[in-house]
Design a protein that fits this description.
alpha/beta, UDP N-Acetylglucosamine Acyltransferase, domain 1, globular, five-stranded parallel beta sheet, seven-stranded mixed beta sheet, 200 residues
Length: 200
């Protein structure tokens, strides 16, 4: 019983509703009204103030994201065409960068380490569903991209994945399990190709 109570408490965090009560398959809302209003306000603000801005205006886009709860180092960079589900679940360290048309599906926290890169069209997704739950409960697991790691163009990183420091996920790769530090991965599912060696 304690486990069920704990699970229900977790679901309520961030406005996620219990699917057995919300009945999303019957049109019920998966998230609370407050959560939906917050995301609607951010979407309008991003569209009007940031989505159209030229690449050099990183500082202005940070101001918009910070206003909605993102935690960003002053040197981090996000392009205007990036899609962010909830800024309050975004953490970016020094010189972390998110390229054009990337999607950050931040139902849970996405943390980008110092000097990490998420390239154009990449998709980081923290949400999934409990496929054995008759109500298809939405579940959330955070993603961490380590320092100096690179998620290349059009790659996908799934819920709960840790991309280790210095790791690389090649273009169009799909990572559903953790990637070892300083290693290069490619393919779907992502497979380790070799160690990443830095020339000095």
């Amino acid at each position: 019983m304690a486990g069920a109570d704990s699970d229900r408490t977790y679901r309520s965090q961030g406005g996620l509703r219990d699917a057995s009560q919300a009945r999303p398959w019957e049109g019920g809302a998966t998230f609370s009204l407050g959560n939906r209003l917050y995301r609607a306000m951010f979407s309008v603000a991003w569209c009007l103030l940031a989505s159209w801005t030229p690449p050099p205006l990183y500082r202005w886009r940070r101001v918009v994201l910070l206003a909605f709860g993102a935690r960003m180092h002053p040197t981090s960079k996000v392009y205007g065409s990036v899609r962010i589900w909830s800024p309050r679940n975004l953490v970016m360290d020094a010189h972390a960068a998110v390229g054009p048309r990337a999607t950050l599906y931040t139902m849970a926290t996405i943390t980008l380490g110092a000097y990490s890169i998420v390239s154009q069209g990449a998709h980081l997704c923290t949400g999934s569903h409990d496929v054995e739950d008759p109500h298809f409960q939405l579940i959330r697991k955070p993603i961490r991209v380590g320092e100096r790691a690179w998620v290349a163009a059009d790659a996908f990183v799934g819920p709960g994945v840790v991309v280790g420091d210095g790791a690389i996920l090649g273009a169009c790769g799909c990572a559903m399990t953790d990637l070892e530090p300083w290693s290069i991965y490619r393919g779907n599912p992502a497979a380790k190709v070799r160690e990443r060696r830095i020339r000095f």
